[in-house]
Amino acid sequence: MTYEIEVNQQRYDTEPRAGQCLRTYLRERGWFGVKKGCDAGDCGACTVHVDGEPVHSCLYPAVRADGRSVTTVEGLASRDGELHPVQRKFLEAQGFQCGFCTSGFLMTTAALEAEQGTERDDGKLDDLPRAFKGNLCRCTGYRAIEDAVRGVRHTELPCAGKAVGSSLGAPAGPQVVTGTARYTFDIDVPGLLHMKLLRSPHPHARIIAIDADQALQVPGVQGVFTHEDAPDVLYSSARHEHPTEDPDDTRVLDSVVRYVGQRVAAVVADSEQAAEEGCRRIVVTYELLSHVTDPEAAMAPGAPALHGDKGPQARIIRAENNVAGEVHGEIGDVEAGFAEADIVYEETFRTQRVQHASLETHGCVAYFEEKEDGNGERLTIRSSTQTPFLTRRALCALYRLPEDEVRVVAGRVGGGFGGKQEMLTEDIVTLAALKLRRPVKLEYTRAEQFYGATTRHPFTITIKLGAHADGTLTAVQMRVIANTGAYGNHGPAVMFHSVGESFAVYRAPHKKVDAYSVYTNCVPAGAFRGYGLGQVTFAVESAMDEVARRLGMDPLVFRERNIIGPGEAMHSPIGEEEDLHIASYGLDQCLSVVRTAIAQDTAQDTNDKQVPDGWLVGQGTALAMIATGPPGGHYADATVSLLADGTYDIAVGTAEFGNGTTTVHKQITAGALNTTPDRLALRQSDTDVVRHDTGAFGSAGTVVAGKAVLLAATSLAERLTTFAARYAGVPRHQCVLGAEEFTCAGRVVTLKELYEAASMQGAEAELTADGHWGGSPRSVAFNAQWFKVAVDPGTGEIRVLRSVHAADAGKVMNPMQCRGQVEGGVAQALGATLFENVRIDERGEVTTAAFRRYRLPQYADVPRTEVHFMETRDAIGPLGAKSMSESPFNPVAPAFANALRDATGVRFTDLPLTRDRVWVALSKAASATPDPISSS
To answer: For residue 766, which of 781, 778, 756 has the smallest C-alpha distance?
Structure first.
């Protein structure tokens, strides 16, 4: 067979392997702009043009491309580097966040634009929900993508010293839109081996024997690793600055499996195909053990103890009862509070498992590099992680390696949402690399993301509220059960955080909580956007809404009567956090935005135009408060230096995965040094770059790492000014730092000249400065969400008529980016509210291990949200800023449920609010009493 294919005007004649798809064929030839998001034709990240037609290259057999011309995102621009019009529009609108999906949207849009005005034009560009039905984005909420397609420009070019507060485009934007941004697997490592994992088919079993003989006979297989090869060390896959926050209940490979999908063995081979065949040939003998998937049953006497073999060193609170962590506390006397109340409301609310669904799956590549001194090798791990430094620390402890012999680096990360605050692949890949002394790669499939990674914690919250007739709360009580799954990574911490700010945002003299993080034989839960707060906020805000309605009060007025005020102490029954303060207050403004939206909507009275006859219309609100950083310390180091050419270098440890920290760090530095962002280079997410960085989680990118960058840049400005004055022989106050030079009493000294002078004098220390921030004290941020919805009682269909979000972000460093974080957070939360659900069967096995069965929000599902920022300036955050990555998620589900309650009279207590669940509840309500009923 002869084979020839043209890719971006380059010819290749290597025949594809039997059954090879076009995506892998292209990536093997260095066209890394073609992404893997699903390998099932569901996400569109792999879209390319074949003879001008857009196709999903993961489904397109490479052999079919014989004799055809293929264009990837790298080939859209002209040969002289001029961007394609679509690339330019996506760059100017910043129609991306992490950017992993962007090449797919670009290729789809470019193909549709090329069809315009031809006989093939079917109007898709005028109907974007139809145009993008084959493309998924997890980050943006799709509105920035729509703006890009429509040619709306959002990016700005600020002048020197004026970057903060402007909509500066992402520094990596040109690379993202041209497909040259390098994500985790966008590298070519010579001699690379591939790992595949054999996973457990049983929810709970002891491994009696593993026979790998036949696997080792597969051509290309280089090694098989089992629990007998793994270190006999317990640890947690969760990454925190203080490892003691999580129970040590995990081994690299264990002799006991505790959920369907747990890894049993690893096969390493020359190709993925050989590794997969090796896994199929491994024979495992199991002794089956009893299993439990319900957390209440797991705590009951006689339930199988998942970690009953572990001692106190594992830090499991009550292993014999499957309790990974618990917290109990009371302020005042809740029984007395309920006794004096005029109304008492009690209900149980449930939230489901949700997958992070970042389009770049978990994975890493381990390889060896020569040490800088030439004395031996060191191990480098290139990983899709939010925590490079904490991962290095854990690997060194696990394998007893000095930290200078291990480097962990993250390229651009294709989405995180908390899911990559874990060590899920680096540990086992390091085991194989150290044993074989060869480079090794492990890249999760989309199915493995569902059953082999982590999910959001499912919660069951029983809440009881008491209130006087005037709307004053008398008591709040909650019993919270968090299902942490088979392992306790993040379990106790999520449980603890969930009952902090959710209690403290409202005043009540009597408060009580009993909360449990419980082991079950299910896929482990982990960190997820909101970190438990969204689950409990769903219960609290739903209950507040219900009490207000039963009192006959406006729910907004009821909230305003009970919310915490500026300068007040925050009281939670789990205890006060001494470093947490209301350093700025915008909650009143948030509720004012909602009230204005309601008034506008009432005045416009647009219901008749938007709503079909017979549909029910309602509106609902919810609010949330969140700390602007994790408790217990979150550390960041930064270094800013003047370079020989008169530009600057920023070194910071935090990772970029669409959270926008790279842009903000440049803006902060440009402001402090009175320069423009284009004169700043930035190195990040690499353990070689700075001393330490806890990681890109807990919304810490601006308020912690950004603070460290601000301290470093400010210090450098002071040092340079002092040295310039000495060099020019003038008083310090007569030296003014500009974009490229100092003006010293009328004399211009370029930064390049200053660098040369410092080098000649041996004063290089004056050209660099460090900054450190420990994450404390912390402030709080506030958010409020309002929805107006219409419901068809005959089918359960719900339409969002209007969505308004008010965000108290302090000083908004980059309005475009911050708005994108809010839009993306609302969109992700709507998915969790309406249809996303990681379903399991009676054995705990995940049954929704693909996007087409899981139902991720598509373009057509997400309304355009009106985003409003409050006028506040925080006393703690850098330049007055607060965090805004996680918090928009938290009030969305209760606001939606409250709108549904307003429309239908039914209180929905279980998520998600799927169409069939809504229809069933409304059908029951139609034949029930006229009083409000609850639906679960």
So the answer is: 756
Q: Provide φ and ψ at 310, rounded to 5°.
A: -100, 145
Rounding to the nearest 10 degrees, give the CA dihedral for residues 442, 447, 448, 452: 170
Q: Report how far apart, in Å, the C-alpha atoms of 136 and of each of 145, 616, 625, 797, 861 are.
A: 11, 30, 30, 22, 11
Q: Tokens 């330490």 appear where?
A: 692
Cβ atoms 305, 319 nearer than 8 A = yes
Q: Residue 651: which H helix or E strand, with range?
A: strand 648-652
**Helix, coil or strand: residue 384:** coil
409, 388 Cβ separation under 8 angstroms:
yes
Residue 932 has pLDDT above 70, yes or no: no
Sheet of 205-211, strands arranged across: 256-257, 205-211, 283-288
Report whether pLDDT(892) > 80: yes
- Residue 248: count other Cβ atoms within 10 Å of its Cβ: 17
What is the H or E stretch that residue 824 is in?
helix 815-834
pLDDT tens, 117-141? 899 989 999 999 999 999 999 999 9
Can you tell me the distance from the alpha carbon of 363 to that of 684, in angstroms, rounded to the nearest whole number? 19
Which ranges of 637-705 would DSSP assign to H, the alpha helix?
661-672, 700
| Integer CA distances (angstroms), 122 to 128, 133, 924, in order | 12, 15, 43
- Report pLDDT for 372: 83
Residues 6+ away with beta carbon under 8 Å from 399 = 231, 430, 431, 434
Contact between 144 and 94 (Cβ < 8 Å) = yes
Radius of gyration of the CA atoms of the chain, in A: 28
Instruction: For residue 708, give the nearest of 718, 698, 694 by alpha carbon.
Output: 694
Token pair belonging to 246: 């999580």
Euclidean distance between CA atoms 668 and 879, whole angstroms: 8
Per-residue tokens: 533: 């707060």
Would you put residue 272 in left (φ > 0), alpha (ψ -120 to 50) or beta?
alpha
Q: One-letter amino acid identity for 742?
A: F
Contacts of 596 (CB under 8 A, 6+ apart): none
Q: What is the amino acid identity at position 428?
A: I
Helix H, strand E, coil C: the string for 236-270 is CCECCCCHHHCCCCECCCCCEECCCCCEEEEEEEC
Kind of pairing, strands 377-383 and 363-370? antiparallel
Q: What is the mean pLDDT of residues 873-900?
A: 97
- Scan for tokens 């696990």, then name that residue: 398
488, 316 Cβ separation under 8 angstroms: yes
Specify the DSSP element, H or E, that contains 296.
helix 295-299
Q: Of 98, 97, 87, give the one whose Cα is nearest residue 149.
A: 87
783 three-state secondary structure: strand
pLDDT at residue 374, rounded to an integer = 83
209 alpha-carbon distance from chain centroid: 39
Condensed to tens digits (0 to 9), the pLDDT of residues 784-822 reads 999 999 999 999 999 999 999 999 999 999 999 999 999
Helix (H) or strand (E) holding 49: strand 47-50
Half-sphere exposure of 807 (CA within 13 A, CB side): 31
DSSP code at position 140: S
pLDDT tens-digit series, residues 571-590 = 999 998 999 999 999 999 99
Rounded to whole angstroms, the Cα distance separating 583 from 575 reads: 19
What does the pLDDT average to over 26-31? Answer: 98
Q: Which two tokens stand for residue 192?
A: 């690379």
* Spatial CA neighbour of 359 closest among 662, 136, 131, 96: 136
Please answer whether residues 682 and 652 qualify as being in contact, where contact means their C-beta atoms are separated by less than 8 angstroms: yes
Task: Give the per-residue pLDDT at 669.
Answer: 98
> Do 635 and 241 meet the contact criterion of CB atoms below 8 Å apart?
yes
User: Which residues share a beta bridge with 336?
Assistant: none
Cβ neighbours, 10 Å, residue 317 = 15
Place of tokens 């340079």: 720
Angle at 147 between CA 853 and CA 670, to 5 degrees: 110
Distance CA 680, CA 8 (A): 32
- Write phi, then psi, for 693 (nearest 5 degrees): -155, 125
Q: What pLDDT, on a 0 to 100 scale, did the predictor assign at position 936? A: 63
